[in-house]
Amino acid sequence: MKSGSHFLLAARQCEIAELEELARTGELVGAIGRFIHALQRERGISGVFLGSQGRRFAQQRLQQVAACEGAEQDVRAQLDRLDTATSHARNGARLFGRVAVVLHGLAGLRPLRERVAALDLPASEATAAFTRLVAGLLAVIFEAADAASDPQVTRALVALFNFMQGKEFAGQERAFGARAFATGESDAAAQQEWAHLIESQQACFAIFAEFASAEVLQADRASHDPAVLAQVERLRRIGCTARDGRLDPELSHAWYEQCTLRIDAMRSVEDRLTTRLREVCEQRIAQARAELRDQRALLESLIAQAKAGEPAGSGLYGPHLERSVLELVQQQSLRLQAMSDELDQVRTSLNERKVIERAKGLLMAHRNLSEDDAYKALRQMAMNQNRRIVEVAVAVLSFADMLPGTR
Amino acid sequence: MKSGSHFLLAARQCEIAELEELARTGELVGAIGRFIHALQRERGISGVFLGSQGRRFAQQRLQQVAACEGAEQDVRAQLDRLDTATSHARNGARLFGRVAVVLHGLAGLRPLRERVAALDLPASEATAAFTRLVAGLLAVIFEAADAASDPQVTRALVALFNFMQGKEFAGQERAFGARAFATGESDAAAQQEWAHLIESQQACFAIFAEFASAEVLQADRASHDPAVLAQVERLRRIGCTARDGRLDPELSHAWYEQCTLRIDAMRSVEDRLTTRLREVCEQRIAQARAELRDQRALLESLIAQAKAGEPAGSGLYGPHLERSVLELVQQQSLRLQAMSDELDQVRTSLNERKVIERAKGLLMAHRNLSEDDAYKALRQMAMNQNRRIVEVAVAVLSFADMLPGTR
Description:
Number of helices of chain A: 13
Structural class of chain A: mainly alpha
Oligomer: homodimer
Helix content of chain A: over 70%
């Protein structure tokens, strides 16, 4: 018959198994981060290549495609290492579902590149295709963060996810601005969208700052080159305030370069964040193993004591042993409760994204929109009402009951 | 190299593994329900036995102890069947932690019964000891509900948990009223506490009604004996409105009997709820298995078609296959998203309890109170302010930052 001590130790072993799974997921997350960065560069380069009718970045594009392919192989190798058969992951189904979407998207990369090489599609379409792939990869990281049940690991994953998402908005801004400068046009609608891309970055970096460790924040501050930031801000001001809607196409090059310097600098912070994630996993595993060892030793010595001398009490064990075991059980119970509470608090930051996803799904189903268009509709509402996207999403969901065909 | 189809099928297999684990947990939950019912009876009988100085229910008590021991053996057998080594449970650590608390509590049952037999403790203390054990058992069911990630199963577990918790409040009311009638006293404070026990039951049964299936609700309505309910309500009115605080001790017997009839009738609904839980698990497993089979067959036939005739496309597969796989991936993705949204909605009802637990933990840590006293403090605040306990708990938590020694 299994005893209370058995379940006490089993609870601890569950924690360890989950932490080990998280460590493996952490490796995948790191590989995905490097791949996203390579795709972001390829997206930017392909946009300039297509926008210039193949005159600029032809050589860089080929180099970047090769770099991207290498990074893709690393991701695939990590995916192969994932144990899909006996996963302990809390939401294996959702994580694997996201991976299936990504792998399907990757199958489309080769034809996409062939069309880019043949100048056979508009720059905006190529950008959108890369952006969808990056969004799919970010969704994998989001599920990993949402699945983790250790508060410290979740904290590290939430910081990493938001940093990556912020960097992705920065990449989208680079592409958006490059097109605006290259075409020489920036009307009121474009300026509003530009401002929204800047705000979206700031919102992500604010959450990152809330959850990142002091040491990562230090690395983040050190990565900012004031000269680059000043240039980016100057070009943003020009792009976002052009009264007559005209921009100097000559600035396109400078914009692209300064944005690239800024984004490449973010890459080093991302590396610190993945290292941090690995360290947290390792520390927590070592800690949980040490605690399991201590707990097991304590229980064994208590039982030995009880057998050796303690007079038989009225309970199943002697009264002394009973009190000691009760203390262990209560400590563990309080610890798990505290962890669970902390986890709920950390996860709150993930809920905003879920609300937006749910509102997007509602618009897709109800208005028969594509995912991109549903998001754009939400963003447009947010811009029109001068509210945050999440606020608009909450409003959309609160009207859900009034829409036909929804519960 | 693992393909998108591989992860598509792996996601489905994860769902099945989790559902199978839920089905096993469902068996445990059923055994716990029967054990709780037996403990509730033993609590009531022991209270009357002690209150009457051993004159009443001596024989019934011995019979009930035997029944309880049988139900306990069933729970222990189910616990032995739990796979603590390779659990897929989303929160194995918390579930096993709760089980450890319960097993420790069970070790105290024998000494408790010896003291009851020897009339060696006050009735209120015996009642409190049984109540603590029942609370521990209910916490196991709560964790099972919180761990489930299938919305339909969660729905069935939430209905069951809330019915059981409501029934437990009914059992506490029976004990409370029996003591009040037996002592012949019911002052204003006692009347307020009594009213609170009634409200707590109603809140639980309201959540039960929200999540139970139509057929269970039908069984619930059929279980209500209007004559019994009329008697219970009449005695409640007498107990809760006695102007001079005096009660007729003669009514103690009738109160106990009518409450027992009411609570025993609830047992049949509880049985329907556990049957329903098992049915839902079985249906969902059969459904998921059929879908996995269909999906696998579809993928295989698509790949065979592609190999046989379809001209080599530009992608990894031919364009026809690619579209079909994309559709599958998108369908699965939307389905998982919808399930996850539905799950969040069902779980909302579990969050109130978590908020109360968290506030309780805060009071225990900050004011150095026992768990019972922390709950009583919350309930007293709620009664004084004429608010629901959960509202008071939210208020307590919002002051948490201002308390010394808390984050």
